[in-house]
RNA sequence: CGCGCGGUAGAGGAGCGGCUGUCCUCGCGGGCCUCAUGAGCCCGAGAUCGCGGGUUCGAAUCCCGCCCGCGCAACCA
């Protein structure tokens, strides 16, 4: 089994914000989970560097574009590290390997007769030396230069998107799960149905970019360059190895709704034209809308996710991202919400469960866990199947909720069996052993199941229970815990955070 | 105009044809426990599941209409 997952490549000249972290975190949860199930995985993220603005800013600073992006790409390389995303490769569209591949890719489209010369017309700002869209303008003027852009026409190359209308409709009809959630597929499909126009894939006025192989006076336009990263990375991520046979087309693209059209319409058409299979799935998620009542003093409404990690820890932020908003929908989140989740769910439900479990094993059995399975009122086996099914379908939130149901069951089990009562009665020693075992066992299974979400904390739980740190998915089952000794009352997994520190 | 999404207890969300409106987080009222991170558990108050029709033995869940909020409408990562 193979699983290749991508995030979009982020625009290098902007700043990482919570939304970028969100996509990267969710992607990592999916990949880590598949890895637990024994899949051979590949996880790709990176940056898009070929924008005219990059070249312009670089020139202002007396740098080459690549020198400039070398300076700012660090923020983006930092992002996966800080959210503990287990990426396999970080692509930059200025990579030599990418450029070479894009040229090959476009040449195939060209050879296939899908490219023709046409006239591209638009509003052009001479100050910026680029075309502007309506949304770029303020009061009809370029906000940077405060002048009205001029209508300009240039000769460049177009891709015959219109030729792929029927093929795309067939794709959507044959593969209802190509784009998920379903309502996004509907959106894309109705867009296609309304009729597709060819689009320009090159720019004559721009110099920073990948030259077209058949006309080096023009460079590839952003969408003809950036999307191809998903494929190009496979050709050079591991020197001397072509990963395409392994990971194409078992690719899953993760992206936010703003770039649905390019991924769900343009990209499959480009692939078909170039003779590649289309991706296995594209999952479109919504926006994380951060409620900015009492935060965002100087940063507008941009909350730096890295700051949140400093306060609450990476696992808490990952957990929150997966839990706070139903994955796929838009959702409003707040820093209060993060703190609540941290204290109530991670601290009280899970952290405290480990504390009380280990404390009782230490106190009543001198730290010895005996293998004495009972018939607890939950089924780790059902959980394993349910969670796997949900994560195969990108239901990151639902899968977590399912695991949390187990965590809550364990707390209820403690109350129902009252081990502190059993401990008072020598005749009930076996019963106590069973309860303690069931608790440790359930917690072991929960920790393994949760490890994709909270990769730092899960092994800590296993260690505290004297269990192996093996995260294989087969361990999410009843009776997974082994006998152990030397179990001591565990320190808090998610200690309370002082209010001062919590003010982000 | 068109297309899409949403409108569920005080707040925010799951649920999307069937056991009495079930569940989750927070808030509110009451109680239990003492293993534990001022943690845990139970009970309760609180909803005509936007409005009006229809389909069905049965609808929050499907269909039609309407109202309200949001998004998209093509070169905008």
Description:
This protein has helices at residues 18-36, 52-60, 65-82, 96-111, 165-174, 182-193, 222-226, 229-236, 244-247, 260-274, 305-312, 314-324, 335-365, 380-392, 396-417, 419-422, 429-450, 457-464, 499-502; strands spanning 2-11, 40-48, 89-92, 115-125, 130-132, 150-159, 179-180, 199-200, 202-203, 211-212, 215-220, 251-256, 281-285, 288-290, 331-333. The chain is 47% helix and 15% strand. Strands 3-2-1-12-13-7 form a six-stranded parallel beta sheet, with helices on both faces. It has 19 helices and 15 strands. By secondary structure, it is α/β, with parallel strands linked by helices. The structure holds one RNA strand of 77 nucleotides.
Q: In this structure, how is the largest beta sheet organized?
A: 6 strands, parallel
What is the overall silhouette? elongated
What is the strand arrangement across the widest sheet?
3-2-1-12-13-7
Structural class: alpha/beta
Question: What's the number of extended β-strand segments?
Answer: 15
Q: Which runs of at least 5 residues are low in confidence (pLDDT < 50)?
A: 292-302, 500-504
Q: Which radius of gyration do the C-alpha atoms yield? A: 26 Å
Approximately how much helix is present in the residues? 40-55%
What share of residues are in beta strands? 15-25%
Q: How confident overall, as mean pLDDT?
A: 87
Taking the alpha carbons of the first and last residues, their distance comes to 42 Å
Number of helices: 19
